[in-house]
């Protein structure tokens, strides 16, 4: 499903290259659940952003479902992103001015789905995550765990095949964190490929395999 | 999607009420101001556009360049037009055009009409809509053409072709036949009249018919092709050589300059599209720049509002950054995001537009009254205007909303989400702020200079008393000499009346709205001299308080004084000096003798220096048309009313109110005052909108530095130091704006002032005054926020980590 070949990413610091990612080679199969671990600054988030097509490497190739991502036109890449990838953040990144319902609806709007279909999908999501009663509340009226659930619901609204999560439980207490991880496991069992970045050994154990990173390299 | 955009936009709009109110007010005020200016400019530019083939119509004028400088004259002698038509195959139609005013009577109805004496071709040259009859109506020598208003007032109908109408002209009632009825001349016609008669009906026509030296009307021609002045001048050289040989030789003898064709007097055509406004002092002679200045100010005001929009959106973008980044991770394309932000600005602009147009609609009656216009908002909704407006609106919203949207939308998501990106709009933002204030400063300096000049004109001694002198336009319906006699008798009995006199030319612009000059040229000791000429009556000098420098005034005890003249200093200088000229005779009608020299007084407006002037009381040269009454009173208004009631008794038909001379002289500068009002209005609107923007900008930028301020306070900075620190950036921008604005304002005002013979010097305090004023306004605008930021408790600003 995913194939990274010789990915390099660097910054120039005073004339010398400072590598963020160094010769990354990675293959991910459909249905995988990968946890990326490593200390701060080891390049975990950068790698995840690359996988999520939010960032570009300086060198290397990225094949997503047999397509050479970085050779694609921006429009095609966005289409690929819209139909296959969902993103979950540590700090949720819900839009403050939108209600729970509208937050979940937003990616569907960008996919240009007709109103009826959107309504059905959002209702389904609300139902599935048990937040029907909260659909007209704004993010500031929810607890952190609830916000992250909305964030996941939003990421799943477009039924992505790949879910990317950047420390999804980082801002949550352990009980809320556990709930989220249970949810991930369940999703993975339903066939969603998941790649998560985490600091917590315990969370990493929910994954099928764990990748360790240090100084921009896989170990 | 769109409905979602609108929903979100509406929610955002309500959330940031204060900021958006500033957006909307700024745009609404700008749109209201721009609408008024646009309507005014469109009206000014629409002059005479209703004439078909107007590119083939021209006004004939001659150009000479005597030692005193270039001179254009469009007054022609009676035989000129027939001769030109006969000798010039290119001239298809030609018509003379002379002013007069006549009294019309039908049954017991009687009214005064602004009449023009024209030739048979007149209605074919121009496209004045004919309601009854046809363009050949004036081929009938005894025909008269009336406009529909006059026709209705006299007959109650416009279907009156073939009816008889009586006209009072030259002391007699005559009968004429109505041959056509035209629509009243529209407000945007530079030629306006309510009746037309044949030129041959002009009083004394038979005498003037072959007289090449008496010039008293203008001539319009319609060529077979488009008017081409250069070509026409070359073609007309033979004609001029034949008919103007004497003038040509005289000019050559007196040291005039020849034009490039070697002629000392040349014939030109002014394209009729330039008749209303041109730099040659011909036709209506309004400033050709005026409508364009209006449009420029409108554009500048819109630009200022637009810059506000861009600035505030960019500054506001920092708070929107996170949302935009999130939206991108949810799959929003740049196009979709720009769409959303554009819809938001479109919504703001639409609200601004509605409020702005309502505002314009509310102000318009006031504006029309103050500026003497009859503009209507519905003129905006002509298809072409609508097109311009929609285009301008789309461009404005696209620029104001689209650019910041594009800037935000194309930033790197990762940085945006991490919060490490700052939209780097500060260079653009600063330039826009500088430009805004530069525009405001230019307008304020202009306001100061124009006001100073108008004040200077109003206060300048004119060489005569203008405060206690009442001028009465005699008008038609009474013999002027009889009127003066009776007024002298009636007013002589009043203790508060000091002197009564009269002249043929008013001082300034009276309530009849007429201004005119008469000029004569003759040979004096082997040189051609020219002079303005005024027919006056006894006691003129005392009435107007004009100083006699040498010789004596006209005196009733000298019966020969009807053949004598007074001259002013300028004229005396032309004749060889004030000491030598008294007692000399001039080669004018009746060879008058100079009996005295008077002080120069400004009998024309202050755009011109005092020209040579000759005064005569010879009743055979011109008829008097204005009575002057010098009063001595503590209550000017009451005296004016008393004079008016006595005048009504003497001439019951009088319908033009008397007025004081200071009012008349002010009226000469109506255009300048209107210009000043518009500039002042523009300056106020510009500074208000610019300050609104500055206020919001300060709000946003200072909020971003709240933490820095907290740290500085913890480190021991005083409140004053912080206020200075925060204000310094803004002051810097103001100083740059001032440096940019000053030379532009100096250049503009200098060229405006050059139009006045009597003018103020632009002084440094006008610039510094404007600069300091703007700086103070700007500082006052931001002070509230800087002080609020500086006095805040640092604990509050540093706590949230």
From TrEMBL, chain A:
GO molecular function, one term: transmembrane transporter activity
Transmembrane intervals: none
Gene3D superfamilies (alphabetical): P-loop containing nucleotide triphosphate hydrolases
CDD domains, sorted: ABC_MJ0796_LolCDE_FtsE (cd03255)
Domain of life of the native organism: Bacteria
Family the UniProt entry places it in: Belongs to the ABC transporter superfamily. Macrolide exporter (TC 3.A.1.122) family.
Protein name according to UniProt: ABC-type lipoprotein export system, ATPase component
UniProtKB/TrEMBL annotation, chain B:
Name by which UniProt lists this protein: FtsX-like permease family protein
InterPro entries: ABC3_permease_C, MacB_PCD, Macrolide_Exporter_MacB
Domain spans labelled MacB-like periplasmic core: 22-232, 432-634
Keywords linked to the UniProt accession: Cell membrane, Membrane, Transmembrane, Transmembrane helix
A GO term from the CC aspect: plasma membrane
Keyword Mitochondrion in annotation: no
Organism name: Sphingobacterium psychroaquaticum
Domain of life: Bacteria
UniProt GO MF annotations: transmembrane transporter activity
Cell membrane recorded as keyword: yes
Topology class, membrane: Multi-pass membrane protein
A UniProt-annotated Pfam family: FtsX
Residue stretches spanning the membrane: 21-43, 289-312, 346-364, 384-406, 427-450, 675-702, 730-749, 764-784
Subcellular location field: Cell membrane
ABC3 transporter permease C-terminal domain residues: 296-413, 683-794
